[in-house]
Amino acid sequence: MTGNIIETGSETPMDSPAKYRVYPSAENFVKFESQKNPVSVPPNSITVSDLKLWYGPVQALKGITLNIPKNCVYSFIGPSGCGKSTFLRTMNRMNDMVPNCKIEGKVMVDGHDIYEKGVDVVDLRKRVGMVFQKANPFPMSIYDNVAYGPRIHGVPKKELDGIVENALRRAALWDEVKDRLKTSALSLSGGQQQRLCIARTLAVSPEIILFDEPCSALDPISTGKIEELMTELKSDYTIVVVTHNMQQAARVSDYTAFFLSGELIEAGETIEIFENPKDIRTEEYITGRFG
Ligand SMILES: Nc1ncnc2c1ncn2[C@@H]1O[C@H](COP(=O)(O)OP(=O)(O)OP(=O)(O)O)[C@@H](O)[C@H]1O
């Protein structure tokens, strides 16, 4: 088999004990060479190596190395200011818009370095969509909000109805809005607006969806709906979520990473992080002793 051999011995705790992974150039699976009978496992969606980021003189990320597998929910937790959102935003280059922001290291999406010269950032943000803390529907109709992305990407008019319906269904909003698609998105409740923003992201067929504290402004019922949605969506998308809510991380995510002062302290399967953390700082944070 041909492909790039990457040493994985020093990566995060969620990595397999296998010494090498072979990333085939064309095939959509990974084999563990050290096993007698190699098994197929999902490849990584995002691979980050030694990522450092500065806002002017302030270093916000201090050498982060992390693999995010495909088709999982991955939570980032940690106290305020530890760099969770900054790290999330590096994955679709949202920090490009911040003056004096400097980045070193690598962020690979599906094996391609997204900081390489010549990368089309508009296309990147189509593939790596983002849902923000505060729902931000455009001041236009529900329909036009969802159709906005496909329209600017040149999708023909006759395909729009199907795309809008499909995205609203996937975002579990269709039944609530199907009779008022032409009314203003601003007339929706906060929870509905957040699901509309998810539909807007889905409408451009991303591969990865980044959620930056998507439920922090929502009541428990709306929060439950978004959490259910993340669990459903992971079969087709990779989901990365920043959350301050420990229960939410434990409920929705397959993997969790704990950050502190710009460093990745520990990452692995959520059950391990919550039930058997290896670092005392992780334990202290998840048991509420600080943060
Ligand atoms: N645009 C910016 N310009 C300058 N400094 C910034 C900027 N955005 C974030 N920072 C700084 O970078 C550090 C990390 O911030 P970040 O928002 O990533 O943390 P966080 O863990 O997401 O925090 P919170 O949970 O409060 O949202 C903080 O010290 C913050 O003040």
From TrEMBL:
Pfam family, any one? ABC_tran
| Gene Ontology cellular component list | membrane
Q: Where is the ABC transporter domain?
A: 46-286
Keyword Transit peptide among UniProt keywords: no
Q: Which InterPro entries match?
A: AAA+_ATPase, ABC_transporter-like_ATP-bd, ABC_transporter-like_CS, P-loop_NTPase, PstB-like
* Example GO biological process: phosphate ion transmembrane transport
GO molecular-function terms, A-Z: ATP binding; ATP hydrolysis activity; phosphate transmembrane transporter activity
The protein, known as: Phosphate import ATP-binding protein PstB 3
